[in-house]
Each structure stands twice: as C-alpha cells, then as structure tokens.
TrEMBL record, chain A:
This is ABC transporter permease. InterPro entries: ABC_MlaE_roteobac, Permease_MalE. Belongs to the MlaE permease family. It is found in: Cell inner membrane; Membrane. The chain crosses the membrane at residues 6-30, 50-77, 150-174, 203-223, 235-259. It holds the Pfam family MlaE. Coiled coil: none annotated. It comes from the Bacteria. Could be part of an ABC transporter complex. It comes from Sphingomonas montanisoli. GO terms for cellular component: ATP-binding cassette (ABC) transporter complex. Keywords: Cell inner membrane, Cell membrane, Membrane, Transmembrane, Transmembrane helix, Transport.
Amino acid sequence: MSAVIGLFASIGRLLIGALAELGRLAIFAWKAISHSVRPPYYPGRILEQLLLLGWLSLPVVGMTAIFSGAALAQQIYTAGSRFNATSTVPAVVVLGMVRELGPVLVGLMVAGRVSSAMAAEIGTMRVTEQLDALTTLRTDPFRYLIAPRIIAGLIAVPLLVLIANAIGIFGGYFTAVYKLDFNAAGYLNTTRQFLTATDLQMALVKSGFFGFFIALMGCYHGFKAKGGAAGVGRATTDAVVSAFILILLSNMIITLVAFG
Amino acid sequence: MMADHKIVLEGVAKTFGDNCVLDGINLEIERGESMAIIGQSGSGKSVTLKCILGLVKPDRGSIRIDGQDVVGLRGRDLEKMRAKFGMLFQGSALFDSLPIWRNVTFALTQGKARDATNMRKIAAENLERVGLSSKILDLRPSELSGGMQKRVALARAIAPRPEIIFFDEPTTGLDPIRADVINDLIVSLVEDLGVTALTITHDMASARKIAHRVAMLYQGKIIWRGPRDRLYDSGNPYVDQFVQGRAEGPIR
C-alpha cells in the first residue's frame, strides 16, 4: 500500500515540479516581452546583439543551407525517378527548403551558436553577482540584457532564414543543373512558379518564433544559473537542448495547423 | 529619537525551501554610523543585505529606510529607494564587457554610452578617491589585479554619491596589506562622504577597524551587538568563540 502511495507521491512531485518550472518560464517570457516592446531601449546593445546573432551567423547558416539544398535535390531526384516524376525536383526543393528545412536548420544552427553563448554570458554574470550589481546600479537586467537579445532574435533569425532559403535553393539548382542535367532556365522558371507568398510568410512566422525561443532560452537558463562554473555549464547545455526542442515542437505545430 | 535611525529592521525572516536563513532579525543603524555584521559563512549575512536592497523579499518583518517601509516597493518608488544605496560586492562584480570608466560611471549612465568626455572625468575623479590613476580608464576589469578590481568596484559604488553603502566581505581574498588598504579607504570614505555604512565580514581585524558598532548573526538571529571595543570582551560565549576563532565552544 505504502509503495503505491510512494509511487503516486513521486509522480505528483515530478508533475508539480514541471508545472512550477513552466510557470516560472511563462513569467520570465512575459517580462522579457513586456520589456522588449516598451521604451527605454538600448540601441547600442541591440546592434551589438544583431551583429553577434545575425551577421556572425551568416557563414555557418550559408554553409548549412547550400549543403542541405544540394543533398535534398539529389534525394528528390532519386525518389522521383521511381515514379517518373523527376520533374518535381525544383518544386519540392523550393517547398521543402522554404517551408521546413530553411527555418528549422537555421533555427537549430543559430540556437547552437547563440543560445549557448547567451546562457554562458548571462550565467557567468549571475554567479559573479554582476546581475545583482546591475540592479543595485538601478539598471533593470531585463531592459539592459534581455530585451536587446529578444529584439535581435526576432529581427535577425527571419532575415537569416530568407538568406538561407535563397542559398538552399541555389544548392538544389547546383546539383540539378550540374549533376542531374536539368535545364538551367527551366529549373529557375519552375522554382519561380512554385514559390508563393504563403510559403515565405510561413517561413517568416516560423523563424520569428524560433528567434524568440533562441534568445529566450539563452537568457532564461543563464538568468537562473547557480553554483559556479558547473552551474554555468549546465545552464549552457539546458539552453541549447530546450531551444532545440522548442524549435522542433513549434515547427511541427505550425506546420500541422497551417496545413491541417 | 526615531529620526536618527537610517535603517531599521524589525522581525525580518526569510526561508529558502526548508532552510530558515533569517529568523526574525532586529537591527537599527544610525545615520552616519558604520555597522558591521559578523557571523559564520551561511549565517544569513548576505541575505540580510539583499533583503534591505530589495533583491530578496523577506517572508515576514519590516525594513524601514529613513522611516519608510521598503518591503514590497515597486517601480519608481523602488528606484528612488535604490538610488540611496551603493554596494561593494564580494567578488567586485565589475562588468567584464565594459572598460573601467564605463564601469565606474554605470550608475550615472545606466549603461548608455553618452556624454563620454564628462563621464571619463567623473570616472577619473572617483578613481583618484580610491587611490587609482586615470591611466586605467580604458582597461578591462580582467586586466587588473584583485585588489585593484576591489578599488574600482569601490569607486563605482561611490560615484553616484549614495547615502548608504553596503560592503559585502570587503577584504576577502586579499592579502593582509591590501586588505588594510581597503579598510583605510572604507574608513576615510565613510568619514569624508558622511555615509551610513553596513559591512558584513568574518575578518575581525576589518570589523574592528571600519565599524563603530558590531552585531553578530547566529542561526538567523542577532545574538549580540555592541561597540567595537567590546568585541573581545563581550561576555557572550558565542561571540568569544567566533572572534577568537576556536573550533571548541557553543557554536558547532
């Protein structure tokens, strides 16, 4: 009997713990958003974050896109040739890249680069009391540290995704034209026909969410870091893993809702 | 009589989880007085400071500054209250992404890069006050030694001319000579600027030098308070054991 009660108790504790964590995250997210939309802003800090998050992510995002686009075209060709449907290559590349692969791959790459860096930096500031120092110097850490990162995430990730989409489509084109003997002009024409405004909207909506989650997870886990260097290490790992999960989960939800 | 109390704590209690850190603290600090709280590591000294600063919200009790209850203050009132304080953190807590001059003037600029010429001048003045040359204005905190970082942090705390300064273990991690330099600086700053000071420390030499009065915190309560001259002659076995640093005694 007591074993059963013990089992229920531990399930209950887990559930309560998870709900409490969710509540803390929701409060944090709300504070982050409300400080991001109200002045005063820190334009210098926003620019700094745009540089770190956006500009410096370009090389890795570009490489990810071109490699994935090129591989994608080959696989679609392989699958398509079984049904005599190899002509679908440009259409499927453009849809797959713009709606799914572009946003998700960019989201994951940027999360790996940036959520970790944010968690490490803010976490170090937490364990060395720099966050408390900010507060005692009458500067709200949400305004000074978190809002610029959220704003930069919301601006930079959609831009990165647009760039990645273009590069990814070019990667597909490269494979199709130089390896699979597609007609260059025809390939581009089909691509243009199949690329609709809805696809781009979809990419932008997704990447807006991803940018928010990337910055939010980096800041949240950094903010609640404790216990010295090991604590900062844990915060960094948690930030990346939770950003990954949130990106993949929200991607699935948006895709299923938009096409459901 | 009440008029001269700068800070009054009444029955301040704080529990983290199952751990009762503060169990009803009563403490009055006079205007212009330098008070030290001594006690073991983990006895709740830092939490006391954080409660007064509004970084931690006490579960019970009242904290009055200049007669105003500050527990649960929000928004502009909280800002106004915090403007009275300067704080020297144990590890200095300098912003390592900013040069020294922007660290020192942070309370004035709130981290915005504005009015650089004037701010550099103010930074140089405050650095001079703590015995540092303006040559270090453009260095980063990581390029300084621990003792110098502490002094820069002191300059940052006094730059906005606060009415109250908190010193969290000001001499921890410094050699005895550098520690005494910091002690002298604190004494002269408290005198020159006429501030009210609250120091938490377990360095007895430091407590005796910088404080007018000393209080001892043990198991979440103030168990003794008195003038610094009585510290070694308190008649309290807990205080005796602590100031003499004996492993044997009532404190386990």
